[in-house]
Amino acid sequence: MIKTIELALTATALMAAPAMAAAACSGSFALDKEWHTETEVNDYNAILLRGVGVDVVRAEMWGGCIRAWVRTADGREEMQFYEPLNLRRVE
Q1: What share of the chain is helix, strand, coil (3-state, %, to 5)?
Q2: Which ranges of 1-91 would DSSP assign to H, the alpha helix?
Q3: Would residue 13 count as lying in a domain?
Q4: Residue ranges in the chain modelled with pLDDT below 70
Q5: Which residues constitute the domain of residue 32?
Q6: pLDDT score for 13
Q7: Is residue 45 assigned to a domain?
Q8: Closest Cα partner for 59 from 32, 35, 34, 89?
Q9: Which pLDDT score, from 0 to 100, does residue 5 have?
Q10: Is residue 7 one of the residues assigned to a domain?
Q11: What does the DSSP assignment read for 2-27?
């Protein structure tokens, strides 16, 4: 009986995992937080993203990713995530 319950709970958790998935990034950051403020790191990341053509309104570090608010073609803002090491968008 207990094995059946454990199996059911495990299966439920595995099926729900993709729905709970969040952007996952890895890597180190170019600026050391020991020497630079959070604002400096955020500004630096925004400059890097603008350099590769992303219309960044603001950016911050979030869960190992760069979380950026990007201006879309119709003037709205949307939140996007980027890898800090290669600036690729995380889908």
Answers
A1: 35, 25, 40
A2: 2-20, 38-51
A3: no
A4: 1-23, 26-32
A5: 23-90
A6: 52
A7: yes
A8: 89
A9: 59
A10: no
A11: HHHHHHHHHHHHHHHHHHH------S
